[in-house]
Amino acid sequence: MLSQAKIGALSDQVAMPEYDRTAVRPGIVHFGVGGFHRAHQAMYLDRLMNDSRALEWGIRGVGTMPADQRMRDVLQAQDGLYTLVIKHPDGTLEPRVIGSIIEYLYAPDDPEAVLARMTAPATRIVSLTITEGGYHVNQVTGEFDPDDPGLQHDLEPGVVPTSAFGLVVEGLARRRAAGVPAYTVMSCDNIPGNGHVAKKMLTSFARLKDPELADWIERDVRFPNSMVDRITPVTADADKEALADEFGIEDGWPVVCEPFTQWVLEDDFGGDRPPFEDVGVQLVTDVEPYELMKLRLLNASHQALCYLGYLAGYRYAHEVCQDKLFVDFLLAYMDEEATPTLPPVPGVDLDRYKHQLIERFANPEVRDTLARLCAESSDRIPKWLLPVVREQLAAGRGIERAALVVAAWARYAEGADEQGEPIEVVDRLRDRLVERAQRNREDPLVFISDRDLFGDLADDERFVRAYTSALASLHERGARATLEDLAR
């Protein structure tokens, strides 16, 4: 098993930490140590450390969900080490052992230990990859939704919190009481204005506990916005086997990813920060143009390919993006519906960016599953695709392709593909979505009548016409024929 004691015996083909990990001191507490964090933020810090920089910015990872217990067990057994494997389109694997995570804590084991790390003066950044749904945003109103049972527990007087929100706010409260400067809260999730959203939602949560604390957070805590990008599929058993067979590394949970990586970060920190710009991070004053580009072109295009591709019988993103019919549809969506909603993006050739996306999606080695892309759609479609629909409707421009994507989601949520094979719908609102979707044929508007997700779109005649036409075609003729009709 991979460990600090064994990395010296690894093959010369494997890059590994060139710094003394015993000299790394903690500076960041990170919630949500999944594949993306380990392929992205932790990788950037490891790069800095290999340049003998940022050794005071070691990461202490924190998990709060039951599924995080496995990450605790793996990282503790491996001294925080794991292997990042870049999968090149030609089949080449490029492994690197990452050493920037120096501790991992599962919060339910000992929440006070987590809070002790957060209140330590050396902790100057608390970062988050807690998924789109982890911010507790009402999708229609944009306001804080406190109904989650974990939040309700953490709002009770005198309890030690266990949720990410509860721990972040309690950590800030204790620092304020002790006269320790606030840490910067840095969101790395795929949410428009993720820093603004994190600030609004955490402050709203704090206000329910202590209005004065909320005022202090609003005034004194910095929440930089960011845009993050790297396709990081779920690690498969075959990935572990290839790592062991080709490189002799027994890793309990390696990470696989594409070669491309991007991080655009607002330079708005309350104190010190790592010199991220020295390893390719774009430090800017305004993230929004880059963020909208990524969310409406990359993320929304993932939704545009996943449901239709799955219904048509594909199971991987690269299969869909090696099919000209689907590629033409994706490019037409990006060119004709998404791009008109974007502001100018400094330093980016949008036409080249869009074609690069197709090349990235088509990488056969990444093997990104459509099931992964279809998961948690209720947190994704409202943030990534529906803003395009609304802006296009307001401007009197086309919405046919985006409406088809929504219809494909509704058809997918019925729970069976075009061959009658069952679909496992993975979504925090699964029961509600499936119950509505299974009434699509008798009531074509039932799915989009969920105002918590779609607002008043079911009242818009032009959207309803495009949506119901697409849904009927998916039912009667299937995904492929529907795309062929749209291409004519």
From TrEMBL:
**Whose protein is this, by species?**
Kribbella orskensis
Keywords, ordered alphabetically = NAD, Oxidoreductase
InterPro entries given in the database record: 6-PGluconate_DH-like_C_sf, 6PGD_dom2, Mannitol_DH, Mannitol_DH/Oxidoreductase, Mannitol_DH_C, Mannitol_DH_CS, Mannitol_DH_N, NAD(P)-bd_dom_sf
**What's the protein name?**
Mannitol-1-phosphate 5-dehydrogenase
Task: Answer yes or no on keyword NAD.
Answer: yes
Tell me its EC number(s), please: 1.1.1.17
Reaction catalysed by this chain? D-mannitol 1-phosphate + NAD(+) = beta-D-fructose 6-phosphate + NADH + H(+)
Family according to the record: Belongs to the mannitol dehydrogenase family.
Q: Which domain of life is it from?
A: Bacteria
NAD as UniProt keyword: yes
- Report domain Mannitol dehydrogenase N-terminal positions: 27-276
Pfam families annotated for this entry? Mannitol_dh, Mannitol_dh_C
Q: Which residues form the Mannitol dehydrogenase C-terminal domain?
A: 286-474
Q: What class of enzyme is it?
A: oxidoreductase
